[in-house]
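Recap from last week: sequence in, structure out.
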Amino acid sequence: MIRIATVLVVSLLVYGCAGPFELRKTHWTVPEVKSWYVDYREDPHAWDGILYQGSDSMWHYYIARVIAVDNWAIIQIRREELKVADERPRAISSSAGLGYYFVDPTRDFVKVRDYP
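Predicted structure tokens:
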């Protein structure tokens, strides 16, 4: 009986610590971001926008803090899908800031305020 209980406890620990992992969504469409953002804003600790991190030749990059799970929503939108009025280069350096400014996806990604 003790052996079964030990195997059960070890199995639960291994399963709880090692899996199953869900792949995080990174590639988004504009309608998906708009829909997600409406739900995101219901959290009283949510940011008042998503942070624009810059663009490269293929993507526009955004990030939002998901407080409930102490995690980040990483959002990449194809350049062909979205026109960014104040486009800036994506900084890859670890010493670079987190982003440039916040946008509101429900208002066509309009800039709402600068990032400190």
